[in-house]
Amino acid sequence: MLALWPFFLLQLVLAFPQKRGNDPQEKYLVSSLPGLYDNIAKSDIPLMFAGQLELYPENDTHYFFWKYVDHNKIPENNKRTMFWFNGGPGCSSMDGALLEAGPFRVNKDEKVVYNKGSWHKATDIVFVDQPSGTGFSYGEDYSHTLDQIGWNFVTFLDRYYKVFPEDLGNDIYLAGESYAGQYIPYVAKHILERNKRVGDKEPQYNLKSLMIGNGYVSPNEQGLSYVPFLYQAGVLNEKNPLWGRILAQQEKCQKIVNHIDANWDDAAINDYEADNTECEKLLSMALDSTLDLEAPDSERCYNMYDYSKKDSYPQCGSNWPYELLFVTPFLRQKEVMAQLNLIKQKQWHECTSSVSSHLRERESAPSVHLLPKLLEEVPIMFFNGNLDIICNYIGTENFIGKLKWGGQKGFTEKQADWIHNGETAGYIKMERNLTFVNVFNSSHMVPYDLPEISRALIDLATGNYDLKEQEDTDQKQKKAFVTYPLGQRNGKQPEPEDSDKTSPITKPAPVDEEPDKTAPITKPAPVDEAPTGAPKAPQASASAEPLPESPAATSSAITRLIQLFVICILIWGIYVLYASYKSRPSSIIKTGPSGKKKNVQWADQLRRFQEDDEEFQQQKSQGFFSKTINKWKGTDPQGSYAPPGQYVENIELGETRATQDSEVADFVIDSDEEEGHSQPSHQV
User: Fold this and answer.
1) Which of 353, 429, 472, 533 has the fewest Cβ atoms nearer than 10 Å?
2) Is residue 144 annotated as part of the catalytic site, yes or no?
3) Cα–Cα–Cα angle for 281, 282, 288, rounded to 5 degrees
4) Mean of the pLDDT values across residues 151-180?
């Protein structure tokens, strides 16, 4: 009877299965990546989830997401979820995850290394490939309008919160860059409409702030800014042989913008506004006119995303950032695709031209028209790297200057300096729920150039800053927004080295000089206000209370101890049964005349029993605990580490399951590997 106890214990365990078997998050857990445990400290490894989340089974639409959660949250990082989009249209948000705001960068060995300025330290962050066909996302149908994109993302949120219900009460921050300046306002519009539609019947989606970096928001107005920007930067001047042609094209663009301004309140979507062809020609003309044929092949053209750099022609920035050479093969590794839990493994492309070609922009009003109404309900921040040409800060300030919101047009107050960690990081304009930040010494991809400084944009958006008065060069008092390194709001703030650093510069520096430092920012509503009201820009506030620790880790440890105990008992029981079996006669046929028993066995039986005896003797020589340890070592060959955290009790460690792109619209970087596109075009 003693030998049957292990089987009773086994039945007891099976009668009370662990929760993780029914946990919808389990299949999205990411437990390993190339270089994760070799290059990154255990304390810096975030809790990660990734996969292709089904939106519409009828057309097989799946959106890929990659979520990062910090195990050691600072008090300010309390109940926040940020959703990040890159632009294109059709460019993957894995650019944002692995080149900008995520916790990892990819090195030349195609392994991850740590990004000390990761935004996941200030907010849970989810990078989403959308719309369908972008990056690892897929489906049978493409999105054709911006409203459709907004609607589909709300559907994504519906599905996301079923998998992560603990995030449902979190404040939502929508962030991204470039063509996300079109995506984000439309997504915000549909979230707010959804909240009104469901009322009290379902939980509200707590939209708190929009953060748009180098956004493509008012296409023609921003196209009109190329020549003034490049002139102030010293890239273009009257001596250029094509100067006359450039000015003639500038005049054509100006007439279109004047027509748009005169008919701004038209409810209809006008072709002359939806068509940005004439104004966008200015960028190509400017880049062509500054071509240096005597320079090395890799330095003949200005980088349209950072004019302080050069690139080959006609790429003019499409080869940048250079780390993309590492990201692409990294995401195409079978091991990585398996660890990211891909249902459908597809070859990753940074940008997919078919997404852009199916998006009929003339059926959607530019997102700038949505801003006044959105600002009544949610704060919006525009931040610009001051070295970017394609979505430069002058264009952003120009469309804001014409925008009427909160009863007034444009900003009415002077800009203020942004001081981060004792140094001038840019300048800010903040008024009536709208913030503009000009970030000095940064490009089209601000977090790529300045990871730690860019993370402080979240502090500006959430009110986690100080307001100080300081003297300018004319000995007049002026306001400054002061932010600090992560978690050091109440720490000592070093003063700027000299007063010259705190005076904002309103134009880009010539390429042979140190670039000027200019940039505005927006501030979101306080956390305790209703998301569908008309929140005011938050004031600087104290840090939030620290989050209570979850008992998950303790529960998991107890569960594993019980499992270990049961396994040990089972092994012992098997040992007892086997020993008992070996101690009896192996085969008794009959008793002969001599009174002796005859033992009859086949030769192959003898060999088998001999092998059993040898195996048993080998096990016996190992000892009970050695055998238990050896049994316990039977783990997943791909690695079974999962970082500790509140999810750990629901983690089942095991082998990751894996199963085995008309005319392209302007402003898309086509992958060199896509068919039918030998020349790269522009990405926003």
Assistant:
1) 533
2) no
3) 90
4) 98
DSSP lists the bridge partners of residue 383 as 213, 437
Where do the H-state alpha helices sit in 290-391?
324-331, 334-339, 353-358, 371-375
Tell me if residue 388 is catalytic.
Answer: yes
444 a catalytic residue? yes
Where residue 405 falls among pLDDT bands split at 50, 70, 90?
Answer: very high
pLDDT digits (tens, 9 = 90+) for 105-153: 999 999 999 999 999 999 999 999 999 999 999 999 999 999 999 999 9
Q: Which residues of 152-172 are buried (b: 16+ CB within 10 A; e: fewer)?
A: bbbbbbeebbebbeebbebbb
| CA 67 – CA 103 distance, rounded (Å) | 11
For the stretch 268-325, pLDDT in tens is 888 889 889 999 999 999 999 999 999 999 999 999 999 999 999 999 999 999 999 9
Given 388, 516, 661, 670, the catalytic residue: 388
| Residue 321 and residue 99 in contact, taking contact as beta carbons nearer than 8 Å | yes
For 390-408, b/e burial (b = at least 16 CB within 10 A) is bbbbbbbbbbbeebebeee
Active-site entry in 132, 178, 225, 364: 178
CB 117 within 8 A of CB 454: yes
Cα dist from 426 to 305, 411, 430, 534, whole Å: 18, 17, 13, 28
